[in-house]
């Protein structure tokens, strides 16, 4: 075990070297990495839309790319700094990609990467589902050193010819198919026939040469106008037929409804007649029962009336008895009152008689006193007179 461990230690190359050599080695690696980062290649993809040609150039020197730095998508840049070949050339920046392959997006005013929410219709995004939204990373539209590719289009041609970009022209294999596009290409009016100006091409198949022309789309001809008119006429005919059928159907429906109504009315009349006949029979049968019931009811009512009359008679007799009793009570009360009055009168009469007797007695006594005392009676009278006068 110990021997194996020793062998492992001898495997490392820096085991026996000094510290200085180790430090020098690490500094060397760091310098190489920094230089490799600085020496970055940028690819310029130049397109010439007039000749339908593209060319890509790789540039190592950063100084050549300085005019492009801090420029936006859509800006025009002179191409003199790229090389002597490009003297007088002017390019427009159309896009690019960074080192990780994220595309530049117009309108994102940064020189960094940004995560945006994309939906249908936006650039740099193609939805896979209906109404799908997705957040994606996108590079800003400002040019920087972190780009690996920059897309340019030729705006102005310089003095020199650039091989592979301006010296050759690649024609389009297929011309425009749409009628409006052909008119636009050849400056044609609506009156001109477009079929003469269709761009075709020769094909060799099985040793035979053929000339092919594309079928023109959206071409307005007399045949097409006639077809359109016939389609419109058919549509109108179908509409009128449908209208007629609906009218007939409504007539039949109304007729059927009227028949149903008449039938229901007849059935209702029959039912009414049956009900009337049944009601008459029931009235006849029920008349006898009603008579019996009426007799019983009349008897019961008469009995009730007799009972009521008896009750009323009893009540009247009771009231009469009560009236007689009240009259007797009243007579007794009157007699008692008369007795009391007679007693009072007798008492008052006796009292009055006693008073009269007493008065008579007092008068007699006074007369007797006068007769006995005639002499002394005079001064008494005078005194009495004097007293009266004094008063």
From TrEMBL:
InterPro entries: Ribosomal_eS6, Ribosomal_eS6_CS. Keywords: Coiled coil, Ribonucleoprotein, Ribosomal protein. The lineage of its organism: Eukaryota, Sar, Alveolata, Apicomplexa, Aconoidasida. Residues 298-344, 355-391 have a biased composition (Basic and acidic residues). The keyword Ribosomal protein applies. It comes from Plasmodium vivax (strain Salvador I). The keyword Ribosomal protein applies. Gene3D superfamilies: 1.20.5.2650. Residues 285-296 have a biased composition (Basic residues). Residues 267-391 are annotated as: Disordered. Residues 345-354 have a biased composition (Low complexity). This is 40S ribosomal protein S6, putative. Belongs to the eukaryotic ribosomal protein eS6 family. GO terms for molecular function: structural constituent of ribosome. Residues 239-266 form a coiled coil. One of its GO terms (cellular component) is ribosome. It holds the Pfam family Ribosomal_S6e.
